[in-house]
Amino acid sequence: QLQASGGGLVQAGGSLRLSCAASGNIVRVNIMAWYRQAPGKERELVASILSGGSTNVAGPVKGRFTISRDNAKNMMYLQMNSLKPEDTAVYYCAFVGPSITWGPGTLVTVSS
Question: Count of CB atoms within 10 A of residue 96's CB?
Fold first, then answer.
């Protein structure tokens, strides 16, 4: 149902744009989100967005990452700027409701 893409290897200070494609209509999906899981760490919330466009971005990435969604295209995005080595992780997109629906992640590696 969800497929993240756009990950890769980038130098510190660089940018990447992740995309999340949903197989169905997302207009009724109230909350969509990006999570990430770094090696040896628990999965953590990066950013979330409501169907109306309101967003919430986690402290460590605030001011650097921007979440957006296009309900007409059934897509969600994560623009990541000023990347740091500590941003290295597998990034997952998700539907957030009574339960969380995950898609396969995409690996982001930031070299110093």
Answer: 17
- Residue 21 identity (one-letter amino acid): A
Pull the structure tokens for residue 82: 């000023």
Phi, then psi, of 101 in degrees rounded to 5 = -100, 120
Q: What is the pLDDT of residues 57-107, one digit of tens each?
A: 999 999 999 999 999 999 999 999 999 999 999 999 999 988 999 889 999
In angstroms, the CA 112 to CA 95 distance is 32
Q: What end-to-end distance do the CA atoms of the chain give, in Å?
A: 34
Question: Which of 76, 45, 42 lies closest to 61 in space, CA to CA?
Answer: 45
Mean of all residue pLDDT scores within the chain: 95
DSSP 32-44: EEEEEE-TTS--E
